[in-house]
Amino acid sequence: MGIRLRGKAQGIVLKIEYHSDLKEVQSDGQLAKLLSASCQRAPFDRLAWWRGLAEHCGLTPLVAVARDGADVAVLPLAGTGTHLSGLANWYTFRLRPIAAGNPVLVSRLARDLAGRSRRVTLSGIPDEDGSATLLEEAFRTAGWLVRRDECDTNHILEVAGRDYESYLAGRPSPLRTTLKRKTGKLATEVLCTFDEAAWQAYEDIYAESWKPEEGSPDFLRTFARAEGDAGRLRLGIARADGNPVAAQMWTVEAGTAFIHKLAYREAARPLSPGSVLTAALMRHVIDVDRVDLVDFGTGDDPYKRDWMESTRPRYRLDMFRPLAPGNWPSLAKAGLRRLAAAAKRR
Description:
By secondary structure, the chain is an alpha+beta fold. It is built from twelve helices and 14 strands.
């Protein structure tokens, strides 16, 4: 851990810290509470999520922290060199700074990072909560060149007080027809606790699905087990003649259902097991959990439009120190791309 004293704010010494050892973060009472489930109501904002990424996904954490008394701002970074990225990967729906108190502390972090890094690239940043704008302004104010691009799409459903049947009535006709024809051919089950046999079924199904090899099965299993212990897991299994043919992993908390993983056996495709199981889980989270929002993560897959009704953009922020020679090739390429785009518009 490195700590720098950066002058005074409100009569208290401002402290900037960098943690590559997440055990230090866990042992810090203020940070441990801020980054716990009691304060952060989505898994991606919590220390446990970052610890899983570090332990199972090969990411090297560098958690940047600015403090001014009771106020604190945390920026989850990764990397060891002069080009840092966000502490996130393909499992992460979104990345954002975590602040309690004065958001100006994010600007203090951006200013201090200038002495540590020549480039910072953050992807999957939301802006419905102002995170992308906050980061962009913080780094610009601190003298960084900032490029902001839309990099991904987040599909969501705002339930708006509907029950499942009302929601289903608004789905596209081909989907409703499929569900009417296929639902009776499959048995579905939604588990709210972690079950070894059900999880093994999920892994077996995934291995026979159309999806690429799982990036980190250990990360996913550890996360599912912890969410099950906390009562937040919704693990769906669909069976045909008693044999598991589809599985999905969702979590539910603070009025939101997050759809993390879904897979079905290719051989079972004629039974539409993925659609039937998604419908069963939708019924559960809407009618039983009574969520307000369903979050289908990132990726603009066409099938998500059948289930979701709105989209939210996700942004990439690429921040450069303009006088760092290591950035000049990237800045030159970016400038050429802008010139080419401008020429095409003429």
